Amino acid sequence: MNAKLHTVTKYPEALIHPIFSYIQEAAERLELETFAIGGFVRDFFLERHEAKDIDIVCVGSGIDLALEVSKLLPHNPKVQVFKNYGTAMLRAYDLEIEFVGARKESYAQDSRNPSVSKGSLEDDQNRRDFTINALALQLNKNNFGALLDPFQGLQDLKKKIIRTPLNPDITYSDDPLRMLRAIRFATQLNFKIEDSSLQAITKNHTRIKIISKERIVDELHKILSAEKPSIGFTLLHQTKLLQLILPELTDLQGIDEKEGQTHKDNFWHTLEVVDNIAPHTQNVWLRWSALLHDIGKAPTKKFHKKNGWTFHGHEFVGAKMVFQLFKRLKMPLNDKMKYVQKLVLMSSRPIAIVDQAVTDSAVRRLVFDAGEDLEDLMTLCEADITTKNPKRFKKYHNNFKIVRQKIKEVEERDHVRNFQPPVSGEEIMRTFALKPSREIGIIKSAIKEAILDGEIPNEYEAARDFMIKKGEKLGLKKVSNQNE
């Protein structure tokens, strides 16, 4: 065993999980220098003990090591082999363990997929993205738990610094996804990206164009899911990456002034909203709704001498922009996208019903239109309060208490949140001896509108009487002997 130890400090307590005894035995049988490396080691030193995956590197064949470990484990778990990458993966103890042989990498200008050749542990640590991810713990018996830390990654963990093992300009140019990973780690861990790294990211920001949209979105999800997402989006903006990835957001930046009248900077306001909503939800799509709720303001911004700056219809325009944004980033164009569209479209609705003069009908329509997403909509609207004036802040939150009380009263009385028509289409057809036709839709829609407008209660008998009257107005004749 000739691995060069850069420190004699050992941390066997990091390796108490039973999986490591199996890996150690397999490594001894195959006479392979073997190490735990990357996120598992990093998280041990950060005292984040919820590992779901472990990366194992050996000087030799990672595939052979994985197969040997599988033979030793109870039930001999299946090994997934990826020959093209020289890697293998197996699942045991609710963990995903990935095995790879130590390697060197070289990159072509137009791809983040490297050419790979066998190498030493030092070569493998050199290719790692950050010093904090290059930490390795030896698994062989004679140096079990020994820390190999050639780039002072442990010091960087203590100082809370994101730094690349080698020249950051080369590191980020070779694999531009690392730029997003640096920002993501800085956001998740609340670390600082070293100045030379930050400058290299800015210098190489256009290289992000060779990264697949799916990879980019995966990193955006992780940034959005952090405790304080604004850290990441500020860094994305500072390094010019955001302009390439989400120009709809950067278009919101800036304050215009005409005739002494200004408006707030909607970009920085948006980041505050996302931070405000973060403590209240782990739903990444609700956080996306907060991030995109004002994107319609850039294209709808107008100045009027009488009213000053306006953004009329920005919710409607923003909802349409959500579709284009999701499509461009290859995000799901399914119920997730429709959910974000809906919340963007309705983001200004709740505050409109604060006025005491607002009718129950308006409240019913809000409840009906929001449906099961009403609570999420209210959470978004409350997060949208970013005023620094304590009196205004208190006033706006009190207004939402009024809204919530109105909603509660209407909900208890009218039950329209998950509205189902009291009279079905089948009953309309039986009552008037109709075949499928547009009249059925007209009657059903009229019943719904009558309930929402408060003309009739949300009850079967009232709805049936209304149905008969509406049918007669349409020239339909009721068939006799319907179960009355």
TrEMBL record:
<dbReference type="InterPro" id="IPR050124">
    <property type="entry name" value="tRNA_CCA-adding_enzyme"/>
</dbReference>
<dbReference type="InterPro" id="IPR006674">
    <property type="entry name" value="HD_domain"/>
</dbReference>
<dbReference type="InterPro" id="IPR043519">
    <property type="entry name" value="NT_sf"/>
</dbReference>
<feature type="domain" description="HD">
    <location>
        <begin position="269"/>
        <end position="352"/>
    </location>
</feature>
<dbReference type="Pfam" id="PF12627">
    <property type="entry name" value="PolyA_pol_RNAbd"/>
</dbReference>
<keyword id="KW-0460">Magnesium</keyword>
<keyword id="KW-0819">tRNA processing</keyword>
<dbReference type="Pfam" id="PF01743">
    <property type="entry name" value="PolyA_pol"/>
</dbReference>
<keyword id="KW-0694">RNA-binding</keyword>
<dbReference type="InterPro" id="IPR032828">
    <property type="entry name" value="PolyA_RNA-bd"/>
</dbReference>
<keyword id="KW-0808">Transferase</keyword>
<keyword id="KW-0547">Nucleotide-binding</keyword>
<dbReference type="InterPro" id="IPR003607">
    <property type="entry name" value="HD/PDEase_dom"/>
</dbReference>
<dbReference type="InterPro" id="IPR006675">
    <property type="entry name" value="HDIG_dom"/>
</dbReference>
<protein>
    <submittedName>
        <fullName>CCA tRNA nucleotidyltransferase</fullName>
    </submittedName>
</protein>
<keyword id="KW-0067">ATP-binding</keyword>
<dbReference type="Pfam" id="PF01966">
    <property type="entry name" value="HD"/>
</dbReference>
<feature type="domain" description="Poly A polymerase head">
    <location>
        <begin position="35"/>
        <end position="163"/>
    </location>
</feature>
<dbReference type="InterPro" id="IPR002646">
    <property type="entry name" value="PolA_pol_head_dom"/>
</dbReference>
<keyword id="KW-0548">Nucleotidyltransferase</keyword>
<keyword id="KW-0479">Metal-binding</keyword>
<feature type="domain" description="tRNA nucleotidyltransferase/poly(A) polymerase RNA and SrmB- binding">
    <location>
        <begin position="190"/>
        <end position="251"/>
    </location>
</feature>
<keyword id="KW-0692">RNA repair</keyword>
<comment type="similarity">
    <text>Belongs to the tRNA nucleotidyltransferase/poly(A) polymerase family.</text>
</comment>
